[in-house]
Amino acid sequence: MAEKPKKPSKLRARLPRGLVDRGPAEIAATRAMVEKIREVYERYGFEPVETPAFEYTDALGKFLPDQDRPNEGVFSLQDDDEQWISLRYDLTAPLARYVAENFDALPKPYRSYRFGWVFRNEKPGPGRFRQFMQFDADTVGAPTSAADAEMCMMAADTMQALGIPRGSYVVKVNNRKVLDGIREAQGIDSDAQWLTVMRAIDKADKFPIKDIIQLLGAGRWDGGEEGKGDFTKGAGLNQTQTDAIISFIGDKDAGASMQGADNQSTVANMRARVEGSKTGSDGVAELATIAELADAGGYGDCVKIDPSVVRGLEYYTGPVYEVELLLDTKDEKGRPVRFGSVGGGGRYDGLVSRFRGEPVPATGFSIGVSRLQAALTLIGQLGNKPQPGPVVVTVFGGDIAGYQKMVASLRQAGIRAELYLGNPKHSLGQQMKYADKRNSPCAIIQGSDEKQQGIVQIKDLILGAELASLEKDRDEYLKKQAEAQFSCKEDELVAKVREVLTRHGVNWS
Prior knowledge:
509 residues, eight-stranded mixed beta sheet, 18 helices, 18 strands, ATP binding
């Protein structure tokens, strides 16, 4: 008996972990959001620049997102020249390379913005992806705190341009020099140990204070108990050092904090805390300047000095800042959501200097577009409904030249339109179902009778959907029924379609 032929094996379609597919509605929302951010950045005098997704790995140097896994925190490969190149993990390191390479040709200060995808070779989790979008603005060559203050004010303007009112966000500011003053006082000499301290403090808005204490000490089990979940090695500080750090950043669980009633009192508290450290005192003075300039610009109510802000990346050298959303909302399942930080940045005076061998001051701000978009969608500031699809011209018979002419006339008038290119034997009903799935505002119909008369039928699909919810014996139904499908001359097609689009406020921008 002959063996049955084996069925060809199918490749299983699957998405890699930590990545997401995006559809038309989400892409349209991103576009709208990015344009609002761009408008604010350009109002502040920043101009666009693009850098490639890949950089030489040694250009990233020690400034990788995961110090414990220097070859794993980024996605890397060798090119044909056996040079190691890596996908960018942020937009700042590539900018530093670009500025260094074009230093003499660029105006200083150099003000630029860029947006795009960045990549992290990290363990994915809820809200933590391996690819996400950022939108950055940076000033290179400005040494004073005025440049940092400007970044904070621009961050505030950006939030408001995106529909987040004052009082629903805060721009929190600290200074790494102040923290370095604490480091000096506590005798923490190891850079690797101090970076671990910084990353522990950076989690203070996500974890209870007891977890931060564990991360400053021996380490923390994700499951809350020894042996449960993954283990994160701590900084190994002694009790005195840990107490000094906690007393500075504040114990929110106990209600103890260096945070004062206003910026002036917070600065005063911090100044007293770092007394005797020149580095720390310099940092406090810079914070005082930022607070003064923010107040002068009318941003004193939303730019707040906050000793708990750290930022996890190693390359920050001075002021650091974060934008935190204060909105409490619920997700699609009714669970409470607090979004927290949606952007941040700081001063990185050493990053460009690595290439130049001379001091090059720089400061920048980055918005986490993907994270902020999720927040704006949830609070209703960004639409998550599909954009209107194209006008669909249906097809009858084998000769499609006349239908192609209709499509061309619509497109030449700036109207999105497509010719139905499915199975030529498909009925009108099947083509209309296609138009509904495409979210088309209207469809064009011309059978043989209409063609002989030189007319076309325009079917208003948006109005047709509304008719389904109306009682058929009502006057309103009869009126709308006449508007939902009507005839016009072929040479009136563009004008009549435009009337339908205008009636429903359809635009594809």
